[in-house]
From TrEMBL:
Record Pfam families: YceI
Domain Lipid/polyisoprenoid-binding YceI-like as annotated: residue spans: 11-180
Native organism: Dietzia natronolimnaea
Source taxon at top rank: Bacteria
Protein's recorded name: Polyisoprenoid-binding protein
Lineage of the organism: Bacteria, Bacillati, Actinomycetota, Actinomycetes, Mycobacteriales
InterPro entries for the chain: Lipid/polyisoprenoid-bd_YceI, TTHA0802/YceI-like_sf
Family: Belongs to the UPF0312 family.
Amino acid sequence: MTSTLTDLTGTWDIDPTHTRLGFVTRHAMVTKVRGSFNDYTGTVTVPAEGIDAATAEVVITASSIDTRNADRDGHLKSNDFFDMENHPEITFRSTTIAANGSGGVDVTGDLTIKGTTKSVTIPFEYEGTATDPFGNLRAGFEGTAVINRNDFGLTWNAALETGGVLVSEKITLEIELSAVKRA
């Protein structure tokens, strides 16, 4: 098992069967709704110069959104939210990756949702590497970041009789990443 970021040189493919690209938000101001995207591809490339020269890219099929409720998913796919007919992909492309001093990395990049691009920084904890039973070298990372959905044009909402709104503006991104090193 590798325990430091210095041993990650190479190209790594995100494994969608062992990765979760999730989110959580408040609903009706009293509970949380969790969801995820189930169809995506991504790579992380760490050159010989090290983690601070690394790059990452993720492309998500927006229609793969899954909140465990078909009606809600349908509404999220509509023009009220993601407008997936006109914006079928959500993308993230790193601009900087830097070791953060606590054994992890801060990944800053351009997140594009519904045609709007904003810079987002996601601090990741490095969980280490291990060789799986099939001989694949895997690296694990976990990270969270908070974004405002209104910044990306996801502005639909409904006022509640008791005050507040149906859907929070604040969205917490939850990423549990397993990447496999290319041979």
